[in-house]
């Protein structure tokens, strides 16, 4: 096709200016973004009473491991961790598959009910029956008080599905057509043609699902309050955060000393314990984002 | 390769955590061993000397596990909590308490009702919802089965306060009951607070009015603009965050000499409700604050600071005075002072019972018991053994040994007894008692079960360690002690000098207004008034032209139809005529 | 190198043969629809609460029917009208700023060549997403207080003569909320865009270099069009959520002085609905929000169909 021209030795000025801009922007961005995280970590290693005075920014003033001891000594935290890991793994796999399958169906240009099915799911993003009707539904389905309430509802989510659909629609039709000429049915196309090309979006959605599952505590509280064997890590940690954001505060109850504000240092330790596993998980998935994608062999 | 790295990271994390977890356990375990032996000895002697309380149950063996939900934040105790186990062994009952997390009380209660499953015990801020839902067991018959409890715990009038329209009693408030002689050493309520170093500097004067108070603060700042280390002193700050804005909002009722009815003033002679929001005293109070604000003596961050920031500010020791309630700041701030040494510099606070004019009576401090009829502990219809449940309730109130286990702990471990039979704590014991992990593993207070203030049945010790006079005095730093001595006081309430009197049976009125909902016009007005006050009170204090600002505030206030609210409160008061 | 922009509606011809092959698709659709009806549509029967005086004891069937009373209460309350305005304004401002920041960050980060710089930056960028709002708002609050670092810098550089208490003035509130959202969510929101960028064929960039394009031009002609589908779909989805502008941020950063601009629909519902045991009011407000959201996305979808090749349905 094109002859290989000689590359110019010097880059255009605009590129250099651009580079400088990139560097400055990223440096500022990193500083501003990193500060709250550093501050939280620092606070988590600081003594609780000392931290009350404020004024701790980048370095602990009175070092203490006590906060972590308190957090990790919580009796149900290991049960919670096990349940959370289980639900994260199970839900990520099942939900990823379900959403991907649906996204595939809805992305097929020739599908009869393409737009109706999309509409059906888009609406679900904006309507909600409310806490009590949902609770009653789960109760009637026998999901409350079990582990299954964590992964069965919410297995299909319109948002995740639409992101995947958009991605799949970007894959040239010609691939699908040539596979079908070879006699492949839709399931084969999904399995062998589309999915391998969807690694970046699969990784993205898997990350979203995993993080959501990891951070869930509200469902554990509402549906499994009395079942400590199904508690989640986040729920146990949330109990420690009995705290500042008290919408139903009242002076009389607070007066009776039964009200204790969790020190900010314990809150910080809780945050770090939550963050850590995800930060460890991400590098695994990152390689799916960084490697480029070559839709080899087919040019429009 | 990556897998190896992750595995290494996880392994080191696991090792670290098991190390830390291990440390916690051994400490608790050791203490429990020595403690158990001692408790056995004291338990026997206590059992011999105790009167009729249900301790004949001891040794019957069957432990019933109950569940309880409380719509307040709190910490769960471990399932193998030591004292909980001791209580279970002796009184046959173990209660698993769960607390409010990440929801409001209304939402939590509503969800419980919708789901139709209840814990055995419950204490909710929305008892009415539960009664409506037929979720609670009427307690009248049970109460009558225990005449000594019935007669000791409440008077017949007080019991009647809990009677619902259908004539039954469904819950019992566990707090606010004093046994015998009151040992009240702290003022656990609202006041104008002032640092002892200010009083010391002025040679311990008598401060009775707002004008004298602010004058003293101004003079002190003029003479001492900074602390030793150069931090600027701040005369006065105000906390207005969310529901804590009582620091700004209701001082008016006290300044007029009335007690803490919270949302209104009750004129005892005429038995009418008066609105303190529009009273002269409140206007003078706001005007005074406005003056001081314009002069620069009131913290400009007052109206935007969060609770955390407020506590941080107090903990630096630079704030000379504020209006607040003891429980809102004292525990955290005093701990901080102790640790940073600021208590030795005279930064501790003492209360003052100010009034608008000198020589007025004040009722900042309430000497008798406050019975809050709005909520309390109840037994639900899902409870399989209400007899045993109620019996345990009674035990909590009537059994001194159980009470001591809950609030003092295990003798020899959490407190010791001196030669005169008085309980006391060493520093280490105090620190342990306040430590979160220790609490989860060892301390079991059953905080929402009946409990007493005042004097123990042994006639000597306080029912609650915070009220033990010896503990109280020992704990004090020099400057604070000097302050007490200079005035000749031995307790905080004496600083306030409130009138000692019994409050009317309607007291406190806030227990009624707290239950108002938007179903009634009074409730709607009350909610709207709250919003208006949140927005306008700061504006009035900051206004350059006070009269104009106050007039605008009044316009907005009156648009809420406060008369509806007053009328509804009056209707309630009328039932006491 | 040029990409075809197709604005014409290309109707795909569906033949009977195609339909016969779609057995698999139909089966999947069936199960998925059943699932959707059970878990998403059936609870909507709870909307009847908005027309009742719901009492938990009486349940959905037993509570008294009051028609449009709850809606009347909402719309006759001028505070609620203000609250709608606040929510809408914050929703739009947040949408615009967070989308711009996320795209900007993704594109700029993509320009970093060396993986050993790029990866750590990306990891750092999404960390604030995991901090709770309580933590983030307390940091923002301290930083913007009269004694905080922002005022410190502004005074030092002579931009202002006296410290400003940013939380005391309503005019600063909405920008502060937008900033808070950007700070916390930019890195996380950029993940999707970064994934989309990796799907762009690197051969396009190489060809562009050969043709003499500089970095800016490459971004303009290759990267932007490459993420356009993702950008549009996300925009479409988020525009429907503009009334869900939030609760926590505004609740935590608000105070009495700015409450006329800080209260959102969710905060209002909490105050006047749940806290008053009035679940019906909460449901009515939720119904209102859903109705507005659906109306918005129907319009947005029509516009998208007309002017681009992306649509929600």
Describe the structure.
The complex is a heterotrimer of chains A (300), B (577) and C (313). Chain A has 300 residues and is mostly helical. Chain A folds into two domains: 56 residues, no CATH class; 166 residues, Orthogonal Bundle (MetI-like fold). Chain A has 14 helices and no strands. The C terminus of chain A is likely disordered. Chain B is of the alpha/beta class and 577 residues long. Chain B folds into two domains: 212 residues, Periplasmic binding protein-like II (D-Maltodextrin-Binding Protein, domain 2, 3-Layer(aba) Sandwich), CATH 3.40.190; 274 residues, 3-Layer(aba) Sandwich (D-Maltodextrin-Binding Protein, domain 2). Helix content of chain B is 47%, strand content 10%. Chain B is built from 25 helices and 15 strands. In chain B, the strands form five sheets. In chain B, strands 2-1-3-12-4 form a five-stranded mixed beta sheet. Chain B is globular, with a radius of gyration of 26 Å. With 313 residues, chain C is mostly helical. In chain C, 67% of the residues lie in helices and 1% in strands. Chain C has 15 helices and two strands. In chain C, strands 1-2 form a two-stranded antiparallel sheet. Chain C is flat. Chain C starts with 15 loop residues before the first helix and ends in a 6-residue tail after the last helix. The N terminus of chain C is likely disordered.
